[in-house]
């Protein structure tokens, strides 16, 4: 179960990114997982060429993904801003296909893995509890980043501007907010969060072009579970998801984990659509 | 004779806000009544309660003998309550005729019959020329008429007109009022909601009900209501003039 | 206008039925099968997605129900035709469950819920090994034993004709108007007495039934199905994209969409091998950015703009000229 918390922290990072994009900005981003996958590949390429391990390399992934996210918003999402959610779904779906197939063409469909000396190290606390070192490091990095993300959304000017836009699209520009600039940056940040989570995941996960797909759906589950508009809610939901999945794997086997995620999702949508911490109606 | 529409000690809360506070009044079968009150007084909430969009927390609403308190909006419509919305809600991708046909479909399942009835209603509202235009292209006065046409096509016994003249010029408003005045001839009672008493209300309404912050503060004929001190107090300053004294 | 379209469609369908007399290659017939199957799937999806405006990305649930239903029930001894009917009933049961929960949700939540349900079914299919064969898959009985591909092709054309007929019938009926009203503004529809919840569910039932039959055909042609093939999100996406690309909410749209997408897909697969998904994605992005109403929808808009511009004298001077989008 404790391992679940470690996984959960990384999930939380992905989820918080989505909370910013979907929860606050109401952009339905089906390419979120693909961006995470790109983060993984970015860290991988960095490692292959410079031997810099992902626990530092994630910064590179973050920057690359921020730029990509920013470009995506400016080039693809801004033009369709007036249209229905449906269109956003299709657009980001298309983007997701382009990204994963593109990576497939460049890197091939093979599974990749990286080997760093840290992988074998374990941390023991007492006779019964063992943590795998890489997971622990990821956990702490994720924790710090999550905190930073929270501060970004709640305290900084841009974060506040993004929330203001979400509450009232028409009043925001009247307050001097440059809507598209704020949204482009916010989208970039949200995507970067996913990319960083990917980079941190690299040492302990198999890398292949399709790895991101499951994360897109899980990210949505986290945002709904945590409550729309609530960054901390999504983070908490990420932890919950991580724990639930590891417990499920323990008692029922790995395969059921995804189903359990979705059952929770459906239950939340039917019974308490505003989520655990959310304030908005669905 | 039992009243047509009975609002009986109805209250509705939203969180901490009492939107409607212990309101009671009745509407007769061939009456035109207007609910008057500044924005936020609770008119739309009241309309939503009558048409089934909200349900009262306390009290009950009875229509033609039927207890309405737990009805869905479509059930209220089937009972004979038609309504227009304050912020017009046309079906943008359909034509004017198709919009009104939707109302006519309540009583017929044949598209040709519905079209016939819709045409009749549109003729009454002087909108025949606009029949094949998409609803999305219409100016506001026509959209307001479209709302009424659609509601009338359902052959209601009672029609709720929320801010039906808001945003119209005086000429437009009076033209509409002349049409509304004839509704009781066809057995349709009407309840309108407006922000303040004006010429329209004075010339059309049999009765006026004044709401302020969710509470009923006065009731009577337009002439009576306009002189009541509580009403004048609720409308201070420049609005004094518009009371038609 | 409609009469001539119907005539053209009838002729096209009649010609399609004659194709197996001319085309003998199994490979080509199989591609045509796929095109018609997705035309039917697109039309079925369109009832819910296009006309009613409910973006379902979980139609694989019904597709898989059809395929697996046929397979499992046949294995348990029921005759083929009965298995097919029961498979459709199973799909209807799923539709009832899924619709009951999902239709209460608006906007993207509806889409997400439909995805969630389909995924749950996929995982169930993978794990309830005794029932479904799990990841290994399950055998599906062949519906035809001679001139197989040709007959499957004809069946898919038949299904498309059925779906087309149903769509045309609905679009001229009160039910169709109710669907479109719900799409434009559900509250308005309620205010004129439309029981939106029930109407949406009925549309879903029809959609699910057609989709299930398509699934059964698909499974029967390949004689074998696995969860990742018939219950995957890829199938759901493909179905929705076919309709959107051609033009959701139009009668011809899904058919056009299927022809374009499936033939492009085949073509790209043979030329580019692995890059076809990428080009698929590019197509999607291009359509959303430049042709959001789909091929047929965009063409129709252009015509409508010319037909319905009001005469110059109509509008009163103080109001603005109507802008038709």
Overview of this protein structure:
The complex is a heterotrimer of chains A (282), B (245) and C (325). With 282 residues, chain A is mostly helical. Chain A has one domain: Orthogonal Bundle (ABC transporter involved in vitamin B12 uptake, BtuC). Chain A is built from eleven helices and two strands, in the order ααααββααααααα. Chain A has helices spanning 2-24, 32-50, 54-77, 85-107, 133-154, 157-167, 171-174, 179-201, 213-226, 231-251, 256-271; strands at 122-125, 129-132. Chain A has a two-stranded antiparallel sheet with strand order 1-2. Chain A starts with a helix and ends in an 11-residue tail after the last helix. Chain B has one domain (5-90, 156-243): P-loop containing nucleotide triphosphate hydrolases (Rossmann fold, 3-Layer(aba) Sandwich). In chain B, the strands form two sheets. Chain B has a six-stranded mixed sheet with strand order 6-7-8-3-9-10, sandwiched between helices. In chain B, helix 6 links the parallel strand 7 and strand 8 (189-194). In chain B, helix 4 (111-124) packs across helix 5. The mean pLDDT of chain B is 84. Chain C is mainly α and 325 residues long. Chain C has a domain at 23-232. Chain C has helices spanning 2-22, 26-51, 60-75, 80-102, 108-127, 129-132, 148-171, 174-184, 186-191, 196-222, 227-230, 233-246, 253-272, 276-290, 294-308; strands spanning 138-139, 224-225. Chain C has a two-stranded antiparallel ribbon. The longest helix of chain C has 27 residues, at 196-222. Mean pLDDT of chain C is 85; it is low at 309-325. Chains in contact: A-C, B-C. The interface between B and C is large, with 43 and 32 residues.
How many alpha or pi helices of chain C? Answer: 15
For the residues shown, what is the average pLDDT of chain C? 85
Structural class of chain B: alpha/beta
* Overall strand count of chain B: 10
Radius of gyration of chain C: 21 Å
Q: Report the major sheet of chain C.
A: 2 strands, antiparallel
Biggest chain pair contact, residues each?
Answer: A-C, 43 and 41 residues
Ends distance of chain C: 22 Å
- The residue ranges of chain C in which pLDDT falls below 50 over 5 or more consecutive positions are 309-325
Strand order of the largest sheet of chain C: 1-2
Distance between the termini of chain B: 35 Å
């Amino acid at each position: 179960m404790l391992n679940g918390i470690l996984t959960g922290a990384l999930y939380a990072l992905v989820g918080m990114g989505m909370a910013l994009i979907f929860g606050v900005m109401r952009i339905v981003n089906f390419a979120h997982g693909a961006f995470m996958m790109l983060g993984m590949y970015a860290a991988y390429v960095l490692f292959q060429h410079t031997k810099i391990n992902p626990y530092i390399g994630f910064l590179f992934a973050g920057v690359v993904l921020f730029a990509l996210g920013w470009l995506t918003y400016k080039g693809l999402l801004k033009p369709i801003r007036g249209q229905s959610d449906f269109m956003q779904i299709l657009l980001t779906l298309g983007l997701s296909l382009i990204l994963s197939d593109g990576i497939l063409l460049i890197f091939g469909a093979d599974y990749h893995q990286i080997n760093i000396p840290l992988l074998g190290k374990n941390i023991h606390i007492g006779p019964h509890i063992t943590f795998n070192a890489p997971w622990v490091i990821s956990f702490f990095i994720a924790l710090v980043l999550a905190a930073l993300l929270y501060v970004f959304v709640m305290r900084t000017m841009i974060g506040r501007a993004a929330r203001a836009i979400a509450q009232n699209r028409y009043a925001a520009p009247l307050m001097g907010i440059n809507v598209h600039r704020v949204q482009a940056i916010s989208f970039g940040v949200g995507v970067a969060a996913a990319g960083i989570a990917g980079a941190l995941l690299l040492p302990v996960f198999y890398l292949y072009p399709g790895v991101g797909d499951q994360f897109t759906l899980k990210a949505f589950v986290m945002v709904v579970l945590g409550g729309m508009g609530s960054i901390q809610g999504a983070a908490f939901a990420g932890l919950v998801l991580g724990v639930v999945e590891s417990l499920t794997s323990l008692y029922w086997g790995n395969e059921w984990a995804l189903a359990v995620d979705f059952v929770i999702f459906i239950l939340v949508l039917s019974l308490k659509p505003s989520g655990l911490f959310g304030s908005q109606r669905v | 004779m039992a009243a047509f529409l009975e609002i009986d000690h109805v209250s509705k809360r939203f969180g901490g806000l009492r939107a409607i506070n212990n309101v009671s009044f009745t509407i007769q079968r061939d009456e035109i009544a207007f609910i008057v009150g500044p924005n936020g007084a609770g008119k739309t909430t009241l309309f939503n309660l009558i048409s089934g969009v909200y349900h009262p927390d306390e009290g009950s609403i009875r229509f033609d003998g039927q207890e309405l308190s737990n009805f869905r909006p479509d059930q209220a419509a089937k009972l004979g309550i038609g309504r227009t919305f304050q912020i017009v809600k046309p079906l943008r991708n359909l034509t004017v005729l198709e919009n009104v046909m939707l109302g006519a479909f309540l009583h017929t399942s044949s598209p040709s019959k519905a079209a016939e009835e819709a045409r009749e209603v549109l003729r009454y509202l002087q909108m025949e020329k606009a029949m094949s235009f998409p609803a999305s292209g219409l100016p506001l006065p026509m959209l307001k008429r479209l709302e009424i046409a659609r509601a009338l096509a359902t052959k209601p016994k009672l029609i709720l007109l929320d801010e039906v003249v808001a945003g119209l010029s005086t000429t437009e408003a009076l033209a509409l009022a002349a049409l509304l005045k004839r509704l009781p001839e066809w057995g349709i009672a009407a309840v309108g909601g407006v922000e303040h008493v004006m010429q329209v209300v004075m010339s059309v309404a049999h009765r006026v009900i004044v709401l302020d912050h969710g509470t009923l503060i006065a009731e009577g004929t337009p002439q009576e209501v306009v002189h009541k001190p509580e009403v004048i107090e609720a409308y201070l300053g420049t609005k004094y003039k518009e009371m038609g004294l | 206008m409609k009469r001539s379209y119907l005539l053209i469609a009838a002729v096209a369908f009649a010609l399609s039925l004659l194709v197996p007399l001319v085309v003998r290659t199994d490979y080509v017939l199989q591609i045509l099968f796929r095109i018609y199957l997705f035309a039917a799937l697109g039309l079925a999806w369109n009832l819910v997605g296009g006309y009613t405006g409910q973006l379902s990305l979980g139609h694989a649930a019904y597709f898989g129900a059809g395929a697996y239903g046929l397979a499992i029930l046949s294995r348990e001894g029921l005759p083929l035709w009965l298995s097919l009917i029961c498979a459709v009933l199973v799909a209807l049961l799923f539709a009832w469950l899924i619709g009951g929960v999902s239709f209460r949700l608006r906007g993207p939540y509806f889409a997400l819920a439909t995805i969630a349900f389909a995924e749950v079914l996929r995982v169930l299919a993978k794990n309830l090994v005794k029932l479904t064969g799990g990841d290994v898959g399950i055998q599906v009985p062949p519906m035809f034993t001679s001139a197989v591909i040709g007959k499957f092709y004809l069946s898919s054309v038949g299904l498309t004709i059925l779906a087309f007929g149903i769509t045309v019938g609905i679009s001229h009926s009160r039910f169709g108007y109710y669907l479109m009203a719900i799409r434009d503004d559900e509250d308005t529809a309620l205010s004129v007495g439309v029981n939106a919840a029930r109407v949406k569910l009925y549309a879903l039932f029809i959609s699910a039934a057609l989709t299930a039959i398509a699934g059964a055909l698909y499974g029967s042609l390949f004689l074998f199905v696995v969860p990742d093939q018939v219950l995957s999100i890829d199938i759901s996406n493909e179905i929705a994209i076919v309709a959107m690309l051609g033009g959701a909410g139009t009668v011809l749209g899904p058919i056009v969409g299927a022809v374009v997408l499936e033939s492009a897909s085949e073509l790209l697969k043979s030329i580019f091998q692995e890059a076809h998904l990428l080009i698929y994605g590019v197509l999607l992005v291009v359509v959303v950015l430049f042709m959001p109403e789909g091929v047929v929808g965009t063409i129709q808009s252009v015509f409508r703009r010319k037909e319905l511009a009001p005469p110059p004298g109509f509008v009163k001077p103080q109001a603005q000229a109507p802008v038709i989008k």
